[in-house]
Amino acid sequence: MKVNGRHYRTIWTEDDAVVILDQTLFPHRFETRRLTTAEDAAEAIRVMRVRGAPLIGATAAYGLALALRADPSDMGLLAAREMLAATRPTAINLVWALDRVIARISPLPLARRASAAWDEAGRICDEDVAINATIGDHGLGLIRAVAARKRGAPVNILTHCNAGWLATVDWGTATAPIYKAHDAGIPVHVWVDETRPRNQGAFLTAWELGQHGVPHTVIVDNAGGHLMQRGQVDMVIVGTDRTTAQGDVCNKIGTYLKALAAADNGVPFYVALPTPTIDHSVRDGLAEIPIEERSPDEVRRIAGRAGDDVIEIELTPPGTPAANPAFDVTPARLVSALITERGIMAPTAEAIAALRMAP
């Protein structure tokens, strides 16, 4: 996607370094950061300089390649995998990317491992771009059908958290159909949930939609149901960090409540995802998916712009306890369909099993 007229991916390489956009500074500053060690990559994932399941996976793959430059032995490989895998436990793409790189380089001589891992990480990035573009093509049909019924009025789409190009290598998952529709001349308008406590909607989704010229409005997290009751939401499209073998969806905290409101108001609730985000080893999302508990300071404090300065302020009374589960699980029964690079599919065990068996 473009920033100030220049095309960017969220991660790329320069010489022997990996370069990322430091998303902890958005939307107030646009800066890049160089990663030269596996520890750099792990820190970037842990503190959310990069975030979003596909981008976390891509960064972890490059982190493993950086680790192998220092120590290509089996012990070094497993130690790096353990360190990187521990950074964010919920997103399945993280472990998927690490294991894919390991499968590629394990049979190779030690001297070839680092370069092969580097190449495999690059392939993961390129594939992510192609996958997300195709997700956009499939989701475009859903938006086009609503637009035909509305006869020129904007299609109102609600999204939660950031499942945009900032969460992937390019295009995004939930935003890919939106960008495709906007670029095709279909009038769309996006309701952007602020997504407390890290405000990925207000900080990131609003920023990238604005950069691309997509009409949007930021709303507080609890406004979605109100808008649905009044017929101001035509569809909900969200992303996911892990989807189970029977179609349960684990996404940013608050997604479950949006799905409940959508079901109560007859609003289609779609989940856009690349198929590597499906965890075929898990069936019951509520019982089996580990939910990351992040620092309570993310709830108690917030960063913002004051004049030319970016400052952090405290929101709660001093010493107030806070809980900060980062994700929740939306049962498959509340999901209208899954939008994948392989097409639009039902959120059922049968459809997901057939997808796994298909060539």
TrEMBL record:
Reaction catalysed by this enzyme: 5-deoxy-alpha-D-ribose 1-phosphate = 5-deoxy-D-ribulose 1-phosphate; 5-(methylsulfanyl)-alpha-D-ribose 1-phosphate = 5-(methylsulfanyl)-D-ribulose 1-phosphate
The UniProt record lists the keyword Nucleotidyltransferase: no
Single GO BP term: L-methionine salvage from methylthioadenosine
Family affiliation: Belongs to the EIF-2B alpha/beta/delta subunits family. MtnA subfamily.
Protein name per Swiss-Prot or TrEMBL: Methylthioribose-1-phosphate isomerase
Keyword Amino-acid biosynthesis: yes
SUPFAM superfamilies found in the cross-reference section: NagB/RpiA/CoA transferase-like
Keyword list, A-Z: Amino-acid biosynthesis, Isomerase, Methionine biosynthesis
Site (Transition state stabilizer): residue numbering on this chain: C161
Pathway per the UniProt entry: Amino-acid biosynthesis; L-methionine biosynthesis via salvage pathway; L-methionine from S-methyl-5-thio-alpha-D-ribose 1-phosphate: step 1/6
Residues at the active site: D241
Enzyme Commission code(s) on record: 5.3.1.23
Residues reported to bind substrate: R51, G52, A53, R88, Q200, N251, K252
Role this protein plays: Catalyzes the interconversion of methylthioribose-1-phosphate (MTR-1-P) into methylthioribulose-1-phosphate (MTRu-1-P). Also catalyzes the interconversion of 5-deoxyribose 1-phosphate and 5-deoxyribulose 1-phosphate. Part of a bifunctional DHAP-shunt salvage pathway for SAM by-products.
Pfam family, one: IF-2B
GO MF annotations, alphabetized: S-methyl-5-thioribose-1-phosphate isomerase activity
UniProt xrefs under HAMAP family: Salvage_MtnA
